[in-house]
Fold this sequence. Notes:
The protein is mostly helical. Helices cover 74% and strands 0% of the residues. The protein is built from four helices and no strands. It starts with 9 loop residues before the first helix and ends with a helix.
Amino acid sequence: MNETAPSPDRPPKRIRWVARIWSVPIIVVVLLILVGNIWSELTNAPPDPYAVEDITLVDSLAPIFIAISTLGLALAWRWEKFGGIFSLVFTAVMYITLLIQGPFPTEFRTLTPYLLGLVVLIPGILFVVSGTRSGSK
């Protein structure tokens, strides 16, 4: 037997680590945003002076679903397949919510939620692939 042959477990490890490295900045940014919003509410900070109008619940659904998708990425560090599927489901729900709110945008500024969804979607897919190939939950 050739002892220098690569282990069959090598590709899932690479995929797993690419997904983990990709998910760390996402998790950190979402945590910073959540902590900032919670801190602002706890300290009764003045409202944003540049806000033009109140934000409706429907408008805030996309960021909420992105935050929940990020929770799935954090769960995927322990349970790859489950966390990846969790993240993919809530990212899909976010896309459906955005498409129900209005037609697909053509300007770059209005494409931002869709692009942010892709940033979360890719590590979710990688976690599912890694979990499936390694046989984990």
